């Protein structure tokens, strides 16, 4: 994106941004019931998409339909509803396989979310393959969910956590990454897109470099999956995790992708029903992946809802979504940069639709409350990235994060609200 | 008054910009760090209690406008007061912050502290306003420790 593309702005939804015109955002907005409501007497402007995304009616309806007409437990009963529910659940798994271009549906494990996926790998792959003085490599911009499970593993095994540093702009120091890797490194686990800064990490390069040394790589895809096309085979990552709720699907459902050769070799995560082949008090044998990792009755409605969400965004096209969001980000970044007293945190060259910012005179929580009174939902806080905040010398930031249902008009309104907010605190 | 001005009243913004008693005490009888892990507000409240009276009080730290202004106003309100008087002020403030029904008489009784009344309409921000108060109450017991809102 060149600045000149945005130079000639006209009135209207897309502000003269070429390319953004073909994106019928008003039609898309009509698909999201919550976007029709107002909050505090103002139209809702939802800029907290990195925390969770809103749900299109097709997702809500799919969950509703499941409970109204199909509810039954899966993989057990021989009755009609049980068969319908099992087929719908398996169908959702297949949709997700296709969405991330995995080779085999056995590589798609349903979990509660990204956090559970990381914990699963730490507790299975980690317990099996990582021991005393072995090293796990993460980065300085990880979410707590890609830090704490590894710390727990280190406490239990005596392994060590190594952290790839970042630049002041919020970019990974790949030179340092290279130096940190050694024969002691047993796993690299890296966030694709930073939830706090929006930095898009060069994960393909990270994966290739780690693979050259035979080190497997896990990717935290919580923020990338909703905002760019994911092809796990092209990335060649060994594990990839994401959450349904950030991908316009229900809460409490997420996905762990793992290459078959890894998943097959792993011990189970939790024990219980549905994950066993046979049980005796002397010896229990387990099913193959993914069932081995899905003990108990899973979140069936969640999986079906996530399948509907994947269908929905696939219809629009992840590439088009990514392109439109780039326009939004560029427009918002340029506008916010013009506001005196606001400092944007995270200025990596490659960014996705997240703008973290701070203001000398106003604490992020006050920014959040003031904007909320204008109907604007942003996040204020440490974004579950306390080590990153510490690295940047901050306690918290305010964060606006966009999705493809946001508009250029909303950004204008947001910028005006930020200016009004600054006036309140300077009066 | 708009909701915005009701919450961020001029008095509150003034205390945020120019916090009163914003200092550590040399020989405090109690010193407590209050931390709100949700938003990172962190203050240390120092008190010197002598003969059942808060002889001096100060605080240090950083956080949002509501937490800092509340801490600042608190120091003004409790300095020179007996423990019993402080307990009463605390109860009144707590009631004002957690009860959005707005008992105007009770709020008026609080004098300058009434500037915090707008916080009651924002349940997510009540902990910001009460943080320093909780720290002060523990510090009065002569404790030296850390507390958290969680």
Explain what this protein looks like in three dimensions.
The complex is a heterodimer of chains A (427) and B (150). By secondary structure, chain A is α/β, with parallel strands linked by helices. Chain A contains 14 helices and 17 strands. In chain A, helix 2 packs antiparallel against helix 10 (300-316). Chain A is globular and about 75 Å long. The relative contact order of chain A is 0.17. Chain B has 6 helices and 4 strands; from the N terminus they run H-H-E-E-E-H-H-H-H-E. A 4-stranded mixed β-sheet of chain B has the order 3-2-1-4, with helices on one face. The radius of gyration of chain B is 14 Å and the shape is globular. The chains are: A alpha/beta (427), B alpha+beta (150).
Topology:
The complex is a heterodimer of chains A (427) and B (150).
Chain A lengths: L24 H5 L8 E2 L2 E2 L1 E2 L10 H13 L10 H20 L8 E4 L2 H16 L5 E5 L8 H10 L2 E5 L9 H7 L4 E7 L11 H10 L4 E4 L11 H4 L3 E5 L10 E5 L1 H6 L10 E4 L4 E3 L13 H17 L1 H20 L4 E4 L8 E6 L4 H10 L2 E2 L1 E3 L4 H6 L5 E5 L6 H19 L1
Parallel strand pairs in A: 3-15, 5-6, 5-7, 7-8, 8-9
Antiparallel strand pairs in A: 1-2, 4-10, 9-10, 11-12, 13-14, 14-17, 16-17
Helix pairs in contact in A: 2-10, 3-10, 4-5, 11-14
Chain B lengths: L2 H5 L2 H8 L12 E7 L4 E10 L2 E10 L2 H14 L4 H16 L5 H6 L16 H15 L3 E5 L2
Parallel strand pairs in B: 1-4
Antiparallel strand pairs in B: 1-2, 2-3
Helix pairs in contact in B: 2-3, 3-6, 4-6
């Amino acid at each position: 994106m060149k600045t000149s593309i945005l130079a000639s702005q006209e009135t209207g939804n897309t502000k003269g941004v070429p390319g953004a015109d073909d994106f019928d955002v008003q039609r898309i907005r009509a698909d999201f019931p919550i976007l029709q409501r107002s909050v505090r007497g103002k139209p809702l402007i939802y800029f907290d998409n990195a925390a969770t995304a809103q749900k299109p009616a097709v997702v809500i309806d799919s969950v509703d339909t499941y409970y109204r007409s199909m509810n039954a437990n899966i993989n057990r009963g021989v009755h009609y509803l049980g068969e319908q529910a099992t087929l719908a659940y398996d169908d959702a798994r297949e949709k997700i396989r296709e969405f991330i271009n995995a080779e085999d549906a056995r590589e798609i494990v349903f979990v509660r979310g990204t956090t559970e996926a990381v914990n699963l790998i730490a507790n299975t792959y980690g317990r099996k393959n990582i021991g005393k003085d072995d090293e796990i490599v993460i980065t300085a911009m990880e979410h707590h969910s890609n830090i704490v499970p590894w710390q727990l593993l280190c406490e239990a095994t005596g392994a060590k956590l190594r952290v790839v540093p970042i630049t002041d702009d919020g970019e990974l120091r790949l030179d340092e990454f290279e130096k940190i890797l050694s024969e002691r490194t047993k796993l690299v686990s890296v966030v694709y897109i930073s939830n706090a800064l929006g930095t898009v990490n060069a994960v393909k390069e990270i994966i290739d470099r780690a693979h050259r040394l035979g080190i497997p790589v896990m990717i935290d895809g919580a923020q990338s999956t909703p905002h760019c096309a994911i092809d796990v085979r092209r990335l060649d990552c060994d594990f990839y995790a994401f959450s349904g709720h950030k991908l316009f699907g229900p809460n409490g459902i997420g996905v762990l992708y793992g290459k078959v050769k890894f998943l097959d070799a792993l011990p189970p995560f939790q024990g219980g029903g549905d994950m066993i082949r046979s049980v005796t008090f002397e010896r229990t044998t387990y099913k193959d992946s993914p069932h081995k990792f899905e003990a108990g009755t899973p979140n069936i409605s969640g999986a079906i809802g996530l399948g509907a969400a994947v269908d929905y965004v696939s219809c629009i096209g992840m590439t088009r979504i990514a392109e439109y969001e780039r326009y939004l980000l560029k427009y918002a970044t340029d506008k916010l940069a013009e506001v005196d007293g606001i400092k944007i945190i995270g200025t990596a060259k490659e960014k996705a639709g997240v703008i973290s910012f701070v203001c000398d005179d106003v604490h992020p929580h006050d920014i959040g409350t003031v904007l909320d009174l204008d109907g604007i939902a942003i996040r204020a806080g440490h974004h579950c990235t306390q080590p990153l905040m510490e690295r940047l010398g901050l306690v918290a930031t305010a964060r606006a994060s966009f999705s493809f249902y946001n508009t250029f008009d909303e950004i204008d309104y947001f910028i005006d609200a930020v200016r009004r907010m600054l006036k309140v605190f300077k009066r | 008054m708009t909701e915005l001005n009701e919450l961020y009243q001029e008095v509150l913004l003034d205390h945020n910009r120019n916090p009163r008693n914003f200092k550590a005490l040399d020989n405090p009888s109690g010193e407590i760090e209050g931390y709100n892990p949700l938003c990172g507000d962190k203050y240390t409240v120092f008190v010197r209690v002598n003969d059942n009276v808060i002889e001096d009080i100060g605080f240090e730290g950083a956080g949002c406008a509501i937490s800092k202004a509340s801490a600042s106003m608190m120091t003004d309100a409790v300095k020179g007061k007996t423990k019993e008087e402080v307990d009463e002020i605390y109860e009144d403030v707590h009631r004002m912050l957690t009860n959005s029904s707005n008992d105007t008489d009770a709020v008026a009784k609080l004098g300058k502290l009434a500037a915090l009344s707008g916080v009651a309409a924002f349940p997510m921000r009540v902990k910001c306003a009460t943080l320093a108060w909780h720290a002060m109450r523990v510090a009065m017991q002569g404790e030296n420790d850390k507390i958290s809102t969680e």
